Amino acid sequence: MPPSPRTRPPLHRVTVLDAAVELADAEGIEAVSMRRLAERLGVVPMALYKHVSDKEDLLDGMIDRVIAQFQPGDPSADPSADPSAWPDAVRRVLLSTREVVQRHPWARRVIETRTHRTPAVLAYMEAVTQLFLGGGLSPDLTHHVMHVLGNRIWGFSPELFNDPGGRPASDRPRTSGQPVPSDFPGILAIAADASARRPGATGCDEEFEFRFALDLLLDGIARLHASEWASPPL
Amino acid sequence: MPPSPRTRPPLHRVTVLDAAVELADAEGIEAVSMRRLAERLGVVPMALYKHVSDKEDLLDGMIDRVIAQFQPGDPSADPSADPSAWPDAVRRVLLSTREVVQRHPWARRVIETRTHRTPAVLAYMEAVTQLFLGGGLSPDLTHHVMHVLGNRIWGFSPELFNDPGGRPASDRPRTSGQPVPSDFPGILAIAADASARRPGATGCDEEFEFRFALDLLLDGIARLHASEWASPPL
DNA sequence: ACCTGAACACCGTTCAAGT
DNA sequence: ACCTGAACACCGTTCAAGT
Question: Mind listing where the DNA-binding region sits, in residue ranges (chains A, B) (predicted)?
């Protein structure tokens, strides 16, 4: 039986979000309905709407809770101390990311449908961006690298990269809305570089990014093939 | 007004699937419900169930119709004639794939949720596999390459690669069910090689594949960084 | 063989009302 | 401030019935 309203502590946003994450872990994302979630919390469905504005907001929040578990890299290691250390640092970050995503198998698919840049998403992107910039990569190369990793590894949707500057954006698509806050210097540096490079362009050139990722892969594969490939190589 | 049952030609599976694709293109995948689709076809919702067994089957069929548009490569070019031509051939295939996926923006996300290996999916994978094998890549390297491309480029789910052999598979996950038909020699060669290499293993080592993809990317990025990177390089 | 009608068990979300 | 009840407009799917 559900706990009586008198004994149950009042709901908070995190309580709701974490219960939703638990439910998705246990029974899959398609089991996460407002009604089932409310039932699990011993509450009537409408009670949830005090803590999330609608189901989109619930999903945004669930993803935030997952991304909050990502290790944004070892903060004790100063990347500029040893610029050549960035590949290992990136590898560590992404392998720990993968562990989190494996614990929440529904997360990647949900991340792919999000077009909002929540603070948690921005903070994570900023941390990874700093690894590359700190390693001496140019803002331009870092930008492309974030696209390759974002799309192919995390599942970030391309819209997430659109128009991070604070420009007019009157007829922007349904993406996000709010500009990048100023405490994400790496992301801002990349955005500034991109708009300096292609002045008229808002957002990114998806065609170019796709070809970049593809050629990067094919080039690597060709080299593996040319050398005497024998598994496992890594 | 909907056409009268007398004047409307009888529905066929393709008619239903193509109408669903059109609807998804026009109003997004979330607009594709059995009821809205039926309405668009001038028919009562239940009439659709003669042509698709349920909504999963509808989505499978829609993806089949999209994948059927993929160009499986230029069949007039014999890959073994010029083994070094495979990177260009792959590039052409994937760029044409991308054009199709761009025309159906909902497709990538739906593909990611499919775990069935429909004949169209198999035929496409077979064609790409043959490009690599024909270029002289080992079955093992081809296998890894298909994982990298499948996951990161097409959105194929990892389950799609599981256990393609015709082994017992009594307690296989909910994936697929039917073994690979024998007219996909490239896929079978890869599967045979994989199970010879890791005898006990059923399916693939996701951890290993992930590290493979990641290291391939990081290695490529490091080299771009080391050389004097200046965009556009491609 | 193909389609229909009524029904069931679900959804997300509104509004006005309760404490 | 937080939760509830009743209601609305949707879902996918069943079954038995129609032509």
Answer: 33-52
